[in-house]
Design a protein that fits this description.
- Chain A: Keywords: Cell membrane, Membrane, Transmembrane, Transmembrane helix, Transport.
- Chain A: InterPro entries: BPD_transp_1_N, MetI-like, MetI-like_sf.
- Chain A: It comes from Saccharibacillus endophyticus.
- The complex is a heterodimer of chains A (320) and B (532).
- Helix content of chain A is 78%, strand content 0%.
- Chain A has 320 residues and is mainly alpha-helical.
- The longest helix of chain A has 36 residues.
- The radius of gyration of chain A is 25 Å and the shape is globular.
- Chain B is α/β, with parallel strands linked by helices and 532 residues long.
- Chain B folds into two domains: 200 residues, Rossmann fold (3-Layer(aba) Sandwich), CATH 3.40.50; 255 residues, Rossmann fold (3-Layer(aba) Sandwich).
- Chain B contains 18 helices and 20 strands.
- In chain B, the strands form four sheets. In chain B, strands 6-7-8-3-9-10 form a six-stranded mixed sheet, with helices on both faces. A six-stranded mixed sheet of chain B has the order 16-17-18-13-19-20, with helices on both faces.
- The chains are: A mainly alpha (320), B alpha/beta (532).
- Chains A and B meet through helix 9 and helix 10 of A and strand 6, helix 2 and helix 5 of B.
Chain lengths: 320, 532
C-alpha cells in the first residue's frame, strides 16, 4: 500500500514537471510582447525611438524577459521551489497572494456546483432507471439532450436575465458572498447534471439486470433495497465522473465566472491573458495542473478504498 | 424412494402458459404446464435449452422479464391462497425467500461483488425479521457450518471474489436455507462448477435435503444428475410436458419419443474406427513449458507433450489446472517463461507480432463460449470470411464461395448463413466458430471446452461434426475438456492435467486403467453420483 502511494506521488510530480515545461513554452510562444504592452499603458508613445528602445530594454530586464528561454525557465523553477510564483507584471503584486485570494472562491463555486450536479443527477438518474421506458424516462432523456446541447453561457445569461434583471431575486455585484453563490452554482450544476443522469441511468440499468439482483429479489428483499444493492456498484463509475466534473469546473469556470462577475481564478486567468501577464498565467496554469493531478489521485485512492476487488485479491487464505 | 399416496402437496402449478415476443410475434414458451411438488421430494424438470425449464423457475418466483406475458396459470403454495399468475399485482415479497427460494446457476454472479458475505446474511435475515442484530452472526455461522465450512467467520468476512465457485454456491445455499423455505428451486446449481466441486455441492444438497426434509425442484439438462438426485422427473420439450413419473420409470423405460432421443444422446458414440489413426510424424512439440503469474503457484509447471499429424489428444482437468493457459500459450496469446513450443521444427514459444499472425494460418482456437467469440454485428457468412480476408486469401468471389462451402460443411445452410450470432442458436454459433477456425485450413485445431456449454444432443452433433471434419481434412486436435465423457468418445490419447502438468497419458478407450490418484478422482466424478 505504501509503495503504491509512493509510486502515485512520483507519477504526480513527473506529470506536474512535464506540464510546467509545456505551459511555460506555450505561454511564451503566443505572439505579443508584455513589455510593449506595459509601456503602452504607462508612457506616451510620442517618445523618440532611441529612448523608447532603451526603456523597453530596461523594462524587459526588470521583468526577467531578456535571458534565453532556458534561463527564464530555470529562474522560474528556482523561485517556484521557494514557493514564490513571481510578481504580476500588471498589478505588481505577488502572484501567490493573488491566487491565494481567489482560489477559495473558485473552489467554493466548483464544490457547490458539484453538489448540485450530483444531487440532481443521482436523483433523476435513479428515478429514470427504475422507471425506464415510461413517459418520465422519455421526458428526462429529451431534457438531457436539450440541456447538453445549449452552450453554458446562454443558460447563464438567461438565468441572470430572468432572476436578476426581471425578478430581482439576485443581486449583481462583484463580491464573493454566499448570497451571490447560488445562481452561478445552479447554472454550472444544471449544465453538468445531464452527464451524471446518463451515467447513473445507464450503469444502474445494467446492474439491475445482473443475476445478483435477481438473487437478492429471490431471497425476499424489497425492490427498493435491491436498488441500493445495485447503486453500490454504480458508485464507482459515478466517482470517476465526479472527479472529472470537479476538474472541469475549477479549470473551466472562466465563462460562468465572468458572466456572474464572480471573483475567482477564471476571471484572473482572463485578465492575465489580456495583459500577457506571464507570471500570473504561469502561476494560474500550474495551480490548475496541481489541482487536477491531486483530484485524480484522490479519485484513485477512493476507488481502491471502495472496491474490495482492488485490494483484496483472491487469496487462498479462505481455504478450509 | 417411492412417493406414498396421499403425501402432502407443497406446491402446485396449473395450466401455466407463458409467451415472449420474438421477431414481431408472440412466441409461446410454456403451454399448459401443470405439475405438483410433494413435501420432501426432489422433482427434476429435465429439458434442453429452449425447452422452457428456466421460464418455469422464473415464473414460480416472479422473476420473469417484463417482456414475458403470462397468459394463464395458477400457483398454489401450501399455507398461501392460490395466486393467479396472469395478474401482475401478485405480492411476491411474501412468497420469495420463505415460500419459494432459488439457487442460481452461477453462484459467483448471484452475490453482490461489493458486499461481504456477512452483509448478504444480515440483510436477508433482516428482510424477513427472522433474527435480532445479535443473533444474525450465530445464525449465519450455523448455516455455513452445516454447509461444510470449517471456518465460517472467515467466510463471513470475505467478499464473493475471494471464494471459489463451489464455495459461492455453498454460501448461496446457506443463504437460502437460513430462511427455511417451503420449496427450493435449484436452477442448474452445479453446471457452472468443475467435477470435483460439483460432487461436493451435490452431496451437500442431497444430505441437507434428507435432514431437513426439503422440497426441491431441480432444473437441469443433465440426465445423470436427475437420475442420481430426484425421486420424480418431468421431461419438458418446447414448452410442453412430454412425460412425467418416477425417475426410474421415466429414465429406464421412456414412453415418449423425445425422452428416448434425449437418453440416446447421453451415450456419445465411442466408435474408435470413426477416428482415423494418427500419422507417425510429429507436428507440435511442447517441452517443459513453465508459466507463472505470481511466484507462489505456477500455472504451468513443466508441460511435455507431442502431437502427431492427424492425432487427437484430449486434455482432461479441473478448472484452474492450467488447460486454457496452455491453449493460449500454443496460439501465442500468452507466453511461457521457460520451455519451448515447436511447430514443425520451428520455435514458436515467443512468437509475437507478425510471427504470431503467421501462426494463425496453422493453429486455430475454438472457444467455449461460441456466441461471445463471434462479433454480433457480422453475419455467419461474413464471420467465416474474416480470416480469409485477414490473410488476403483469393479474391472477393473466391472467399465468399469458400465461406459458403465451409458453412455447408458444418451444417449452416440457406438463410441461416445470413443470420447474425444473436439470431442463431448456441449450437449454430459453435458451428460457425468451427467453420471460421477451419477457413485457413489449419493443421492444428485447439478446442477449449468447445462443447461444454452445449446441450447433450447438440454436444453429440458437434462432436460428430468434428469427427467427420477430422476424417475429411486430417488436421490434429487438442481437445480441452473437464468432461471425461466427451474425451472418451473422441480422442486417441488423453492427457490428465493437474496443477500445471500432465500427470498421466491414457489411451482413449482405456481410461479406467488410470493409476494416478488425480485421474481416479476425476473419473470418480464422471461416474454418476451415488443414487438416492
Amino acid at each position: 500500500m505504501g509503495r503504491r502511494l509512493l509510486v502515485a506521488v512520483l507519477q504526480m510530480l513527473m506529470t506536474v514537471f512535464v506540464a510546467s515545461l509545456v505551459l511555460f513554452a506555450l505561454i511564451r510562444l503566443a505572439p505579443g510582447d508584455p513589455a510593449k504592452l506595459l509601456i503602452g499603458r504607462t508612457m506616451d508613445i510620442a517618445w523618440d525611438a532611441a529612448a523608447y528602445e532603451s526603456t523597453l530594454n530596461e523594462l524587459r530586464q526588470e521583468m526577467g524577459l531578456n535571458g534565453s528561454l532556458f534561463s527564464q525557465y530555470a529562474s522560474w523553477i528556482g523561485s517556484l521551489l521557494q514557493l514564490d510564483l513571481g510578481t504580476s507584471f500588471y498589478t505588481d503584486r505577488s502572484v501567490a497572494a493573488e491566487i491565494g485570494e481567489r482560489l477559495p472562491s473558485t473552489f467554493l463555486l466548483a464544490g457547490t456546483a458539484l453538489i448540485i450536479q450530483m444531487a440532481i443527477g443521482l436523483f433523476i438518474g435513479i428515478l429514470s432507471a427504475v422507471h425506464s421506458g415510461t413517459w418520465f424516462d422519455t421526458v428526462v432523456r429529451l431534457l438531457c439532450v436539450g440541456l447538453a446541447s445549449v452552450p453554458g453561457f446562454v443558460i447563464g445569461l438567461v438565468l441572470l436575465l430572468a432572476l436578476a434583471v426581471q425578478m430581482g431575486f439576485y443581486e449583481i455585484s462583484s463580491q464573493a458572498t454566499l448570497s451571490r453563490l447560488w445562481l452561478p452554482a445552479l447554472t454550472m450544476g444544471l449544465l453538468g447534471a445531464p452527464q451524471v443522469i446518463r451515467v447513473v441511468r445507464a450503469n444502474l440499468l445494467g446492474e439491475l439486470g445482473q443475476v445478483y439482483i435477481q438473487s437478492a429479489l429471490s431471497r425476499g428483499l424489497s425492490s427498493t433495497r435491491v436498488v441500493w444493492h445495485a447503486m453500490r456498484n454504480v458508485l464507482l463509475p459515478t466517482i470517476t465522473l465526479t472527479g472529472l466534473s470537479f476538474t472541469s469546473y475549477i479549470s473551466g469556470a472562466v465563462v460562468i465566472e465572468s458572466i456572474f462577475a464572480w471573483p475567482g481564478l477564471g476571471e484572473y486567468a482572463l485578465n492575465g491573458i489580456l495583459h500577457k501577464d506571464y507570471p500570473a498565467l504561469q502561476g494560474y496554469a500550474l495551480v490548475m495542473v496541481l489541482s487536477v493531478v491531486v483530484i485524480h489521485l484522490m479519485v484513485e485512492a477512493l476507488y481502491v478504498w471502495l472496491d474490495p476487488r482492488m485490494t483484496r485479491r483472491k487469496k487462498e487464505a479462505v481455504h478450509e | 424412494m417411492k412417493i406414498v399416496d396421499g403425501q402432502k402437496e407443497k406446491l402446485r402449478i396449473e395450466q401455466l402458459e407463458v409467451s415472449y415476443p420474438q421477431e414481431g410475434a408472440m412466441q409461446t414458451a410454456l403451454k399448459s404446464v401443470t405439475f405438483t411438488l410433494y413435501e420432501g421430494e426432489i422433482l427434476s424438470l429435465l429439458g434442453e435449452s429452449g425447452s422452457g425449464k428456466s421460464t418455469v423457475a422464473k415464473t414460480l418466483i416472479g422473476l420473469l422479464p417484463s417482456s414475458a406475458t403470462v397468459r394463464s396459470g395458477t400457483l398454489i403454495l401450501s399455507g398461501h391462497s392460490s395466486i393467479d399468475l396472469s395478474r401482475p399485482s401478485t405480492s411476491w415479497s411474501e412468497i420469495r425467500g420463505r415460500g419459494v427460494a432459488m439457487l442460481f446457476q452461477d453462484a459467483r454472479l448471484a452475490l453482490n461483488p461489493m458486499m461481504k458475505i456477512r452483509e448478504h446474511f444480515r440483510e436477508t435475515l433482516h428482510a424477513h425479521r427472522l433474527a435480532s442484530k445479535e443473533q444474525i452472526a450465530s445464525i449465519s455461522e450455523h448455516w455455513l457450518t452445516r454447509l461444510g465450512f470449517t471456518d465460517p467467520s472467515t467466510i463471513l468476512n470475505a467478499y464473493p471474489h475471494e471464494l471459489s465457485g463451489g464455495m459461492c454456491q455453498r454460501v448461496c445455499l446457506a443463504l437460502t436455507l437460513c430462511l427455511r423455505p417451503q420449496v427450493l428451486i435449484a436452477d442448474e446449481p452445479t453446471s457452472a462448477l468443475d467435477t470435483v466441486n460439483q460432487r461436493e455441492v451435490l452431496h451437500l444438497l442431497q444430505s441437507l435435503q434428507r435432514e431437513l426434509g426439503l422440497t426441491v425442484l431441480l432444473i437441469t439438462h443433465d440426465i445423470a444428475l436427475a437420475e442420481a438426485l430426484s425421486h420424480r422427473v418431468i421431461v419438458l420439450n418446447e414448452g410442453r410436458i412430454v412425460e412425467s413419473g418416477l425417475t426410474s420409470q421415466v429414465l429406464r423405460e421412456p414412453s415418449h419419443d423425445y425422452t428416448r432421443q434425449l437418453l440416446a444422446s447421453r451415450d456419445l458414440t465411442s466408435d474408435a474406427k470413426a477416428i482415423s489413426p494418427p500419422d507417425a510424424s510429429s507436428l507440435l512439440t511442447i517441452r517443459n513449458l513453465f508459466k507463472t503469474y505470481d511466484a507462489e503457484q505456477p500455472i504451468l509447471s513443466g508441460v511435455n507433450v507431442q502431437l502427431h499429424v492427424g492425432e487427437i489428444i484430449g486434455i482432461l482437468g479441473q478448472s484452474g489446472c492450467g488447460k486454457s493457459t496452455l491453449a493460449r500459450c500454443v496460439v501465442g496469446l500468452e507466453h511461457a517463461q521457460s520451455g519451448t513450443i515447436h511447430f514443425r521444427r520451428q520455435d514458436i514459444t515467443h512468437a509475437k507480432g507478425s510471427a504470431r499472425r503467421r501462426l494463425a494460418r496453422h493453429i486455430q482456437l475454438v472457444f467455449q463460449d461460441a456466441r461471445a467469440s463471434l462479433n454480433p454485428r457480422f453475419s455467419a457468412l461474413e464471420l467465416v470470411q474474416t480470416p480469409l480476408h485477414a490473410f488476403r486469401v483469393g479474391d472477393r468471389k473466391e472467399r465468399l464461395e469458400r465461406a459458403r462451402y465451409l458453412l455447408e460443411e458444418v451444417g449452416i445452410t440457406g438463410a441461416a448463413q445470413h443470420r447474425r450470432p444473436p439470431q442463431l442458436s448456441t449450437g449454430q454459433c459453435q458451428r460457425v466458430a468451427i467453420a471460421r477456425a477451419l477457413a485457413l485450413q489449419p493443421e492444428v485445431l485447439i478446442c477449449d471446452e468447445a462443447v461444454s456449454a452445449l446441450d447433450m444432443s447438440v454436444q453429440a452433433q458437434i462432436l460428430e461434426l468434428l469427427q467427420r471434419l477430422h476424417r475429411q481434412f486430417g488436421f490434429s486436435i487438442l481437445m480441452i475438456s473437464h468432461d471425461v465423457r466427451v474425451l472418451r468418445a473422441f480422442c486417441h490419447r488423453i492427457a490428465v492435467m493437474h496443477e500445471g502438468r500432465f500427470v498421466e497419458f491414457l489411451q482413449g478407450n482405456r481410461l479406467s486403467s488410470g493409476e494416478h490418484a488425480h485421474t481416479r478422482l476425476l473419473l470418480q466424478g464422471a461416474d454418476e453420483p451415488e443414487s438416492v
